[in-house]
Amino acid sequence: MTREHQLALYRSMKLIREFEERCLEMAIAGEIVGGMHPYIGQEAVAVGVCSNLTERDFITSTHRGHGHVLAKGAESRRLLAELLGTLEGFNKGRGGSMHAADMRLGILGANGIVGAGGAIAAGAAWTAKARGNSEVVVSFFGDGAMSQGVLLEAFNLAAIWSLPVLFVCENNMYATSLRCDSGLAGNAARRAEGFGMVARTVDGMDVESVAGVAGELIERCRDGAGPAFLECLTYRFFGHHSVLEQLGVEFRDPDEVATWRKRDPIVSLGERLGDDAVAEIDAAVKNEIDEAVEFAKNAASPEPKDALMYLYSGTAAVRPGVVL
Amino acid sequence: MSELPSPPPDLGYTHALNRALHAEMAADDDVFLLGEDVRVGASGVTSGLMPKFGPERVLDTPLSEQGFTSFGTGAAMAGKRPVIEFQISSLIYLVFEQIVNQAHKFSLMTGGQIQVPVTYLVSGSGSRFGWAGQHSDNPYSLLAHAGIKTVVPGRPADAYGLLRSAIRDPDPVAMFAPSSLLGSTDVPDSGEEEIVPLGEANVLREGGDLTIVAVGQHVGTALEVAESLSDRVDLEVVDPRTVYPFDWDCLRKSVNKTGRLVVIDDSNRMCGLGAEIIATAAEEFDLLAPPKRVCRPDGTVIPYALALDKELVPGPEQLTKSISAALNL
Ligand SMILES: Cc1ncc(C[n+]2csc(CCOP(=O)(O)OP(=O)(O)O)c2C)c(N)n1
After folding, report:
1. Is residue B145 less than 8 Å (CB to CB) from chain A?
2. Which residue of B has its CA nearest to A115?
3. Quick one: which of B64, B56, B63 has its CA closest to B80?
């Protein structure tokens, strides 16, 4: 991998980290009203995978989606503006943390329902294939989603129709508080193989490994070899959701958290890049996020009377719920 | 359209749906059909599409409703216009999440960045007489409640015209085709090619004494009853055609003229479509007498034995009684 490529990966991971650390503060302070599911610790997955995608490729994201959306190229200031519920947000303040997505970048929704994105990804991949295009679709989900029936249905559809989808399971070992070994029978990648998919497992704390293996699998998809499955072994450094963080609810062994924190993907790539390069990127990223905060805090809020705007494409008249 | 191999032309309503699919698929290459056994046209509704449009546009899916419903959402988001046929009306319960919580919500949640133009074609909805508990429901009120654009055509011409509108609409639209009409030869397909806009009711019979709102197969019931009582009362019959969004203006005009209202609708009573129509009439219209509704009992589960099935599904006798009560006949 070229140094330039490594620098780009580092920058992208650092941007997500800085963005999320700032958001976590704002969520705990109540400025991000619904709170957030922090992605901190898992950055190597989104960045490694998305480094192989173009703007024309699609992704489906999850409740823990800020990392995927930023790695796909979304502007941090507009993402933050969305989290603050403003008109400058991608979704004009109608989506918030769990739905924030820039459709122009092929982000087919960050999704609040676990496992919901896989079948949407399969449909988009079918469309791309039917049009004779070379776009691929990446569907991100957690280890918890592996127990949702609809995701397994999506594996089947993608496999029988040989669709260009890469299913990326971010195995951070927990679904809220449920440990993966108590929630998932067998093994995620072996399950995927049962659908006839090529499946690989990588160290999700090493962005270069993720980028490399995801790159191979995405090329296969582009070449028409059908869907593939990538399991990334990773960890979230913070709790499941900022509310739990606020309440101080922690269900993981502190030693386990500390051990994984030593494997911070940003620190380890930074060490390979050297202090000067890192310091320069860090400063630029901090600057970008400062500006994003400024931008988002100054953005206008939507009008209450427009609360149901965009529900229907046309003029379908919605009657008021309270008749005065 | 005479080259269509099947279904037989005397199956009016089925034939009309089939013609609409042929017409929309011919008009727009992005329209495609998916569902279980659609290639062979097991329901009759999708007959002849496979030979005409090929396997790229007529997809037999595996038995995975949740998967293929959201597959439709993804395909639509990427630029296609899927029509999904459901073999059984109760399968809608399986895909409530995929329709109500996914497809329907993307437009608002994304601040208008994306639309999801999928059509859910629920052919064979309602009692099939003898198909028992899990094959006899009529869940259109649930989708209307959730805000899904929902149509229940009562006549072949409307089935044709509304299906074409549904496919062209930028939002998700569900069409419930009543089972008792699908197999019926009573009203032949007229061959009409008129496109019926969503959200417009139709006054099928004018009258000054009482308004009957009739949905789906009960449009026919209401017209018959109105005719049979015509020597005593002058009944107006309104077919909403689209149950959501509902054409309140049309109904307001009718009820403000007649002052009396009976609704016949094959939903369950509690929170069913009839409840909403009557509540709105009570709140907003000029009524001379309490309105009545003819519908299934609360939370109905249709039993197998034919006499029990028929007991629970509304029919002409109940409608006649309700009209008599509302008019003090
Ligand atoms: C279908 C569904 N069930 C439950 C929830 C509540 N919930 C939100 S996130 C979550 C855990 C998801 O775990 P996983 O898929 O491993 O992703 P992670 O949170 O670890 O990133 C749960 C149970 C939900 N949103 N959707």
Report:
1. no
2. B67
3. B56
Alpha-carbon distance of A293 to A264, in angstroms, equals 25
Q: In what helix (H) or strand (E) does residue B31 lie, and over which residues does it extend?
A: strand B31-35
Q: Rounded to whole angstroms, how far apart are CA atoms B134 and B125?
A: 11
Choose the mutation target among B53, B58, B70, B168 for the interface with A, i.e. most A CBs under 10 Å. B70
Task: Give the Cα separation of A169 and A178 in Å (integer).
Answer: 16
Instruction: Name which of B82, B3, B76, B87 is nearest B38 in CA terms.
Output: B87
Q: Where are the alpha helices (DSSP H) in B202-315?
A: 218-228, 248-258, 273-284, 306-312
| AA identity, residue B217 | Q
Q: Strand, helix or coil at B197?
A: coil
Pairing label, strands B202-205, B235-239: antiparallel
User: In degrees rounded to 5, what are phi and psi of residue A249?
Assistant: -80, 120
Pairing label, strands B149-151, B119-125: unpaired
Quote the ligand 1 centre to A246 CA distance (angstroms): 19
Residue type, B20: A
Sign for the CA dihedral angle at A288, A290, A294, A296 comes to positive
Q: What was the ipTM of the complex prediction?
A: 0.92
| Side chain identity at residue B95, one-letter code | V
Active-site residue list of B:
65, 135
Two tokens, residue A202: 């990588």
Q: Give the pLDDT confidence of A187-238 residue by residue, as tens digits.
A: 999 999 999 999 999 999 999 999 999 999 999 999 999 999 999 999 999 9
Q: What residue's CA is closest to ligand 1, atom 21?
A: A142
Q: Which of B62, B75, B110 sits opposite A126 (nearest CB)?
A: B75
A229 - beta bridge partners?
A167, A199
pTM: 0.95
Q: CB distance B102–A120 less than 8 Å?
A: yes
One digit per residue, the tens of pLDDT, for chain B of length 329 reads 445 555 666 789 999 999 999 999 999 999 999 999 999 988 889 999 999 999 999 999 999 999 999 999 999 999 999 999 999 999 999 999 999 999 999 999 999 999 999 999 998 999 988 899 999 999 999 999 999 999 999 999 999 999 999 999 999 999 999 999 998 888 889 998 999 999 999 999 999 999 999 999 999 999 999 999 999 999 999 999 999 999 999 999 999 999 999 999 999 999 999 999 999 999 999 999 999 999 999 999 999 999 999 999 999 999 999 999 999 98
Count interface pairs A-B at CB distance under 8 A: 150
CB B24, CB B160: distance < 8 Å: no
For B319, the token pair is: 């409608």
Check CB contact of B230 with chain A, cutoff 8 Å: no
Q: Does B170 touch chain A (CB under 8 A)?
A: yes
What residues flank ligand 1, with Cβ below 6 Å?
Answer: A 63-64, 112-115, 141-145, 148, 172, 174-176, 240
DSSP string, B102-164: IITTHHHHTTTS-----EEEEEEES--SS--TTS---THHHHHHHT-EEE---SHHHHHHHHH
The model's pLDDT over A240-274, given as tens digits with 9 standing for 90+, comes to 999 888 888 888 999 999 999 999 999 999 999 99
A86/B contact by beta carbon, under 8 A: no
CA of A34 to the centre of ligand 1 (A): 16
User: Which residues from A are below 8 Å from B98, CB to CB?
Assistant: 116, 119, 150
